[in-house]
Amino acid sequence: MYKVRLNLRKVVAIAIYLAGFGLSAFAQNVVIQTNESSKSTTEDKCAYRISGICTTEDIGGVEISRGDGGGGGNYYLSFENYNNFTVSVIFEYVSAGDKKTGTIVLKANEKKKTNDFYYYPTDFKLIARKLNN
Length: 133
What we know:
alpha+beta, 2 helices, elongated
């Protein structure tokens, strides 16, 4: 009977050891996520902002281009709305090294150019937002 107890103790000890080993192996595969490492804000989703408006608000469908204003580096800005609804467009560009912004409203499928000319405008960015009529 003494041998049986010794063997039973060994079996229990081995079972406890294996159970502990199995739990430690399982614990190595557990991924702990914390709020600090998974912070996400709307700021992260903005490619850029124009006058505080994030690009995530952009509905698309509007094109901006540079039209010749008669030489001397003066150009007007041309816009085309491909949407079938009115949009408000806020735009940004660089002229003579300075960032400048402006706004324009375009009706459905409307093409429009600015009245003012700009000196070598480049780096165009825009955000189009739907206007409710």
